[in-house]
Every structure is written in C-alpha cells, then in structure tokens.
Description:
heterodimer, A: alpha/beta, Rossmann fold, two-stranded antiparallel ribbon, 12% strand, globular, B: alpha/beta, 2 domains, five-stranded mixed β-sheet, 13 helices, 12 strands
Amino acid sequence: MIKEKEIKKLEEKCLKFRRDVIDVLHEKKTGHPGGSLSVCEILTTLLFHQMKNLNPANPLHPDRDRLILSKGHAAPMLYRGLAELGYFPVEEMHTLRDFGSRLQGHPCMLDTPGVDMTSGPLGIGLSASIGIALAFRLDGRKGHVYTVLGDGELNEGTIWEAAMSAAKFKIDNITAIVDWNRVQLDGTTDDIMPMGNIADKFKAFGWNVLECDGHCVKNLCDCYDKALAIKGVPTVILAHTIKGKGVSVMEGKSAWHGKPIDEDTFALAMEELGGR
Amino acid sequence: MAKSIRDAYGEALVEFGKNDTRVVVLDADVSSSTKSGLFYKTCPERFFNCGIAESNMAGIAAGFAATGKIPFVNTFAVFITSNGLNAIRTFGSYSELPVKIAGAYGGISDSFDGSTHHSLEDIAIMRALPNFKVFCPCDETQTRWLVKHAIDNPDPMYLRLARNEFPDVYKRGQSFEEGRAMIVREGKDATVIACGLMVSNALKAAEILERKNISIRVVDIFSIKPIDENMIEKCARETGAVITAEEHNIYGGLGSAVAEVLAKKGIGTKFTMVGVNDRHVGSGPYDTLQAYAGIDAYGVVNAVCKLVECN
Lengths: 276, 311
C-alpha cells in the first residue's frame, strides 16, 4: 500500500512534469499536449513507484520491468519522467523534436536511454509487450511489462489480436493500462469510433479488468498491486482520465491533441499549473 | 531427389535452432504449410502459434527480439509483407531488432490458390525497408545455409522462400557469403542474373541456348540486399548483355536492383528483365503459370534472344 507521504510527492512531481511539458511544447511549437497531460499520473506512478530494477546507470538491465508507451505520441511526458530518473539531463527536454536530438517525435529505443520499445504507429505496442513477456517466461525472469495504451488506439485491430493472444498464452506478467480520455485526434471517441463497453470487450477476450481514476495516484497504485496478484490471465486497468488534464481550456478538447500552444493558452496554463 | 524449399527450411530450423535457446519460431496458423511445424514437434516450448493474425505475430516477434531472442516469423510471403508490415517497419527496420521474416510460398509457388496467395511484390516491399537484408535461396543447400546465417547474424532479415521442390544447384555443404553472388554456369554471350526458382530455369535456358550456339553465364544472386555490385559490373563488362530473372513483378524486385547498380556505375549494357509483367496470373499448375507469365526456361530464352542474335 502506498503511503500518504509518497502520494503527496508523486502529486508534486505530476504538477511539475505537466508544467515542464507544456513549457517545452510551447517553446517547440510542435508535439502533443492533450495526451501527454492525460497520461501524466499513469507514467509517473509507474516510473517512480511501481517499476522494479530501473537503473539509469545500466538502462538495459535484463531484469528490469519494461514500460511500453504504445500511445507513443505522449512521448514528452515519458521523456520528462525518464529525465527526472536520470536517464538523461532534464535540460535535454529543450531539444525535443530537434534535428539530431535523442528525443525524437515519438519514442525510439535506439536513440533514447530508458525507452524500452519504439512506438508511435498505434496498435502494435501490446503485441511487442507479449513477446517480451513470453521471453521473460522462457528465461525464467521476474520482470513485469507495463503497457500504456490510448483509448483511440483501441480502434486498431491489432490490439484485439494481441488481446486474444495474451489470453491464449496465459500471460500474467503484463499489466496494460488504457489512458481512457475519451478524445481522439478528430473528435470524441464516441463520435469518431464508438468502442462501446471497453470493459466487457476485454473481459470477452479473456482479460481481468480493473477500473480507476487515472488521475488519482493512490487509485492507480492500488490497481497495480491488484493486477500483480492475479495469476494466469492478463490484466488491463481502464484508467479514466481527462485529455488535457490540468489546463482548463485544453480539457476534453480534441483540438489540443497536437496543436502548437499559443501565448494566451501558455500564460493561462502556467497560471493554472502554478508556474507563475 | 531434390527437397522442397519449405522442407529444407523447416528442417534447418530444427537443425540449427533446437539447441540454441535464443531461437523462437512463430507461425500464423499455417505451420504445416510453412513447415515451421517441424520446429514445434522438436521444441514445442519455443514455438508460438499466433493464430491468423499476422500483424500481432510480427509485433510479438519484435518483443522477443528486444529481449535477446532470435524470432523466425512464418506465414505466406504475401500476408506477412502486407498485414505484418507496420510492426516489421517500426521494430525491424527502424529499431533494428533482429527479426527474421520468412515469407513462405513466395512468387507464384502457391499456384493453385491463385492470385490472392501469390507474392509478386514482397521483394520490392522488403528491399525498400532501411536496414533490412533480403535473401531468396535457389535450392535446399542454400536454404539451409540461409537459416544458419540468419541465426548467426544480428540484422533484420527477409527470407523469401518457396513451396515447391527446386532442382539442386549446389553440392551439399557448399558455403555462401552474404552480398556475394555465385556464378553457377560460365558463358560469354550474355549473363542471366537470377534468384530463387529462376536460377534453375535460367540453367535450363542455358542448355537450350547452347544448342543454338549461344553461351550464357548464369549468376545466382540469392543476396538481393546487400547486392553484389562488383559481380553485376563484371558480368555486364565481360558478356555485354544482362538479363535479370525473378519470380516477382518486374517492378521493384531483382531486375530493378540490378538496373540501379548498372545505372549508378554508368554501364550502358544491353539489358532486359524476366519477371511477371505487372499483372496477376490466376490459379493453375505451377509450370503452366510459369509458362503463362513468361518466367519458365523458354521465357528466359526469349529474353536472351531479344538481346543476343539467336538462330
């Protein structure tokens, strides 16, 4: 069980990371604010509380837990967390999407220390996670795989191929987390491609399903513990989130999926995120 | 009797993979066709049948490759290079993970199943992916070498295989080198540069042409990427005419690769391509389809006679 003091620390980190990510996205005038803000607590709790054997001095440690950010467009928030852990200097965030930068537009496992799997094209991260999980099993390794999916990403057919195969292979060393922010690039998920009852869909594919408030540190951490206790079937945590969380004008707005941040919005964001 | 390429492949997977715990084998519900099922019988714990879901299979393979394994990915060439391509590109090509994509039933070798199951564009697709190496073996011995090479070499690779028996071109135990084409028959009037089935079709064509006093050199260019530029240049200069021969669309495959080399080197040799001429060929017996597509031995003869005076 996560302690109150740690919850407070993680919440402070989330506020700082939101601020820093908005700052960089404003500076670079490119990148994806909406999905970065919605996934903030998910990534922060994984990197700073849940995952085992992360070691920036030995980023390829074979027994480390793996993090697959299948919704790779939220890369800025992942990079901010990895920088805080010490995989690269925090100042390097200001090279985001620059030519020659280690911080590519979408995560690249070859370029960025701490990135376990390349991502960006939606729908294939869960499949890669299954390969990692099966390799762990073959080699008797204890590592656990955390796979973060977008809800829009669930439109991709490969996700459901992966879902059925995870159940077939009785994978219990993956925890998938859906950043369920209900907004995709062109509009709300209900408008663009209604997914119906996502919990029932995963259950029908043989998964154990948990739900939580994806902005509640305690809720998320409790779910991770519950997921680890389930054996013989894969677990997905449906984390209810708000796209653009933390910046009032961005919240729930598809327009902020990938829009450059103007001066007025930036000023408001900094005020709301305690930056000024 | 020569062995089918698929049997040679499946047996080589067992031979070279059974004691190497890095090797894992995946299939998409066609393991009795691809012969990856032979590996399942020997090492069931390292065989993963992913069902009829090529995209997921390619992604799973990448996860294995990212965790120290050497995954062999098996299904029909046409399906893995279409449905599996997103994961292959992202994880194999871009992330340089050592995935070994084995395209079974390449070309028109799944002849009776028809055009939906033929693969006329896989070499073009895989050749266009940065970091991927592309191979197309012509007989049992070369197929065995290729499987071993794929295990020993950490690059992402595409192995373009075939369903049927191909005549033996090499003696058992012949060794090969990546990027190094083989002269399998000497000749002076023209060179046929071929891969896969077309090596033996070219050898048959050379016999026919010999009766017409035409002397044809036949080169087996099983390593399509990297390609043996020096051999291409040498043949163009020494024989003055180059004919490429492949069981593939004439666009984007071996013919294009050879033409690129000739153009880059500024060699204005006589040149033509034998391949499926930008069309689909339908169902039928393999030899009938080869004749219809103009890629049987007589197709090669006709192409040579366009460049070299034949009586």
